[in-house]
Each structure stands twice: as structure tokens, then as C-alpha cells.
Design a protein that fits this description.
Helices cover 39% and strands 23% of the residues. The protein is an alpha/beta fold and 383 residues long. The chain folds into two domains: 183 residues, CbiD-like (2-Layer Sandwich); 190 residues, no CATH class. Strand 1 and strand 2 form a beta hairpin. Helix 5 runs parallel beside helix 7. The longest helix is centred in the C-terminal third of the chain and has 20 residues. The chain is elongated and about 80 Å long. Belongs to the CbiD family. This is Cobalt-precorrin-5B C(1)-methyltransferase. InterPro entries: CbiD, CbiD_sf.
């Protein structure tokens, strides 16, 4: 049954979904009920960690020698989630030990790096889903008259999990072989900022467990590629998307020795206006900022009007070069962005490199070069 729960994003009404953790718990409960009763289960009721009751359809149920297996299909609602529609399976065997053992099988990722929710070597089934799976199975055992002395061995599998995982952050996080079974509240909210920020924090925790030196942060793949190919920073970067401020705050909390932010002018020019959430729906001001700094560099009113009419930062950069003030403007923009970055970072040393795809480095803060040298040495020592 579709979850009839909605959130408002801008002018849109978007339907919520439920997490892979809820699917795993529901499938495990259904399999336990079927194993005890010997009867097919078509629907199963579960309560999410934030106390929402769901009645979910059970698919592909089967029984074998001492086990039952059921699946629940992931419904991400209106969220752009690569796991939407995926079947999450749970296979359950009853045991005579009063414990619930939860393991991941085919298509469930395996943790290979420290710093994540689960220890190295464990299945990537996070703490809250594990608690929910255990609670749902215990409910089924109690309802089936098995009491507290009974236990169960549960294996979660995702047949398409390994292929799907290649389109998630798991390879970056050191989770191999499949997807993660996730969920804190049990509910997927479309366009969720919190989910994206949680992913950024998870990646930073992994990096911190690997080393404490300066951290390379970039909004996206362009920045990561530029850092590797042009700046010769071959170590892993944390991709922060539009959430630069959240990434800086997390780096401060985790006590990295420094932070180097590398990004395209189209994103990082916004920092010169104190904008740390660079999504266009939050703020733009790219041309306003460039025009203000052009005026400080002596640009005429006519030039400023042309800058304000530019649609892209690349077009604005071309115009600044045409009028001979590109270097002055980029020096001013970089300096101002660096001031805001350092203010946000506090005691954490923070440096900045701004680039464009066509022109390469457009500006860097005073300490960026020495921080990059240090990062290269650290990378060489680790090899």
C-alpha cells in the first residue's frame, strides 16, 4: 500500500516513502509469521521508529526446510532514490537461543573502512534498522506463542543490490558488494536535505578514521577531477554538493588539521557573499557579487550592466577578461570568500582554490599552496 504522507517542497506536494530499513524489518516479520503459522502472509504491519504505522504488501514469499523468506518492495515516494522499487528480502530461521542474529547476504554491502555506523567486516545494516528488525521479529515470535526464549537468525538480501550500489555513495564510503540498509525515522522525505547532509557526514567520518591531516572538500565531480589532474591532489575528496557550510562545520567537529575547498567559480563565487548553501533555490547572487567586485576594481556602469546581464559565470569571466580586470576581480572575490570561509571554520585552518573549466585556477587564498604541498606529502607517505 502506498504511503499517504506528504511534504511540501516549494510549490510542490510530494509523497513520502519508506526506507530500506523498514522494508527489511517488514520482510523479516512476515517471514517469521509465516514460519510459525505455516500460512502465507500477504500484508504485514510495522511501526516506524518515529511511530508511524505502515501496512505493507508482502511479495515472493516462500518456505523451505526450516526457513521462510519474504520480500517487501522499497517505495521511495516522490524522492529520486535509486533503490525505489527494489525488493528487499529477509530469510528467517528459528533458533533455540534467545537472541536475534541479523546478517547481510547477497546484495547487501560490507563495511571495509572504519568510521561508519557499523564496524569493519560487518554487513552495512545500520543500527536503527537492526533495532527495528529485531523488534519486529520479537513481536512476531511473541504473537506466535514462542515467548522470549525463542530466537532467530535473519539474513537480509537484495538481488540487484550490487548493481544498484554503483549508483550510490557506497563505493566512496568503502562499502562493497551491495547497498546499505538505512533509515533513522523509517520515512523517506523527498528532496530531503537531511539525507544528503548525513551522507556527507558519513564520508567525512570515514576520511577522519583514515587520517587527521588536511581534508580536501569539493562540491562535485568537476572539483574532484580538477584537484587530481591539475592540482595533483590524488587523495580522496569529500563531495559536499551545495552544503559547503555543513561540510566545514563537520570538519571542525571532527578536528581535521585543515580544510582545502576546491570548486568551480559558479559555486564558490557565492562564498564571497557569505552564502554557504549554494543551491540556486536558496540563493544565487553570482552576478551581483561579480559586479560588485568589478565595480571595486574600477569597472564603469556600462560594464557593470553587461555583467549583470550575463547568464553564466563563464560568460562573466570572458567579459572581465575583455575589459582587462579579470585578475583584479578574482583576487578580490577570492579574498572575500576566504574571509567568510575562515570565519565559518574558526580555529580550523581553511584555504580555498577557485577554478573554471576553461581557464584553470582563477584564484587561491594565501595559504592554499602550502596546504596543498602538505597534502601531497601526506599522500606520498601513505603510499
Amino acid at each position: 500500500m502506498a504511503l499517504e504522507r506528504y511534504v511540501i517542497s516549494g510549490a510542490k506536494k510530494l509523497r513520502c516513502g519508506f526506507t530500506t530499513g523498514v522494508c527489511a524489518a517488514a520482510a523479516a516479520k512476515a517471514a517469521t509469521v509465516m514460519l510459525i503459522s505455516g500460512k502465507a502472509v500477504e500484508q504485514v504491519a510495522v511501526t516506524t521508529p518515529n511511530d508511524i504505522r505502515l501496512v505493507l504488501e508482502v511479495e515472493d514469499a516462500s518456505c523451505g526446510d526450516g526457513f521462510a523468506r519474504c520480500a517487501v518492495r522499497k517505495d521511495a515516494g516522490d524522492d529520486a532514490d535509486v533503490t525505489d522499487g527494489t525488493l528487499i528480502y529477509a530469510s528467517v530461521r528459528l533458533t533455540d537461543k534467545p537472541e536475534i542474529v541479523i546478517e547481510g547476504g547477497m546484495g547487501v554491502g560490507r563495511v571495509t573502512c572504519p568510521g561508519l555506523d557499523q564496524p569493519v567486516g560487518a554487513a552495512a545494516i545500520n543500527r536503527v534498522p537492526r533495532l527495528m528488525i529485531a523488534r519486529c521479529v520479537r513481536e512476531a515470535l511473541a504473537d506466535g506463542g514462542r515467548g522470549r526464549r525463542a530466537g532467530a537468525y535473519i539474513e537480509i538480501t537484495v538481488p540487484d543490490g550490487e548493481a544498484i550500489a554503483q549508483r550510490t555513495f557506497n563505493p566512496r564510503l568503502g562499502i562493497v558488494g551491495g547497498i546499505s540498509i538505512l533509515g533513522t525515522t523509517g520515512i523517506v522525505e523527498p528532496m530531503s536535505t537531511a539525507a544528503l547532509i548525513d551522507t556527507i557526514r558519513a564520508e567525512m567520518n570515514v576520511r577522519r578514521a583514515q587520517w587527521a591531516g588536511p581534508l580536501l572538500v569539493t562540491p562535485g565531480n568537476y572539483g574532484e577531477t580538477f584537484a587530481a589532474q591539475t592540482l595533483h591532489l590524488s587523495g580522496p575528496a569529500v563531495l559536499c554538493s551545495n552544503y559547503i557550510g555543513e561540510a566545514v562545520d563537520c570538519a571542525v567537529r571532527l578536528r581535521f588539521e585543515g580544510l582545502l575547498l576546491v570548486g568551480h567559480i559558479g559555486k564558490l563565487v557565492k562564498l564571497a557573499g557569505g552564502i554557504f548553501d549554494t543551491h540556486s533555490r536558496t540563493a544565487d547572487a553570482r552576478m551581483e557579487i561579480l559586479t560588485a567586485h568589478a565595480a571595486l576594481a574600477g569597472a564603469s556602469r556600462a560594464i557593470c550592466m553587461k555583467l549583470m546581464a550575463c547568464v553564466t559565470t563563464d560568460a562573466a569571466i570572458d567579459l572581465l577578461e575583455e575589459f582587462g580586470i579579470l585578475n583584479l576581480v578574482m583576487q578580490s572575490v577570492t579574498e572575500r570568500a576566504g574571509i567568510y570561509l575562515c570565519r565559518r571554520a574558526g580555529a580550523l585552518p581553511a584555504e580555498l582554490v577557485i577554478f573554471s573549466n576553461a581557464r584553470g585556477v582563477l584564484g587561491m587564498t594565501d595559504g592554499a599552496r602550502s596546504m596543498m604541498d602538505r597534502m601531497r606529502r601526506n599522500m606520498e607517505e601513505q603510499q
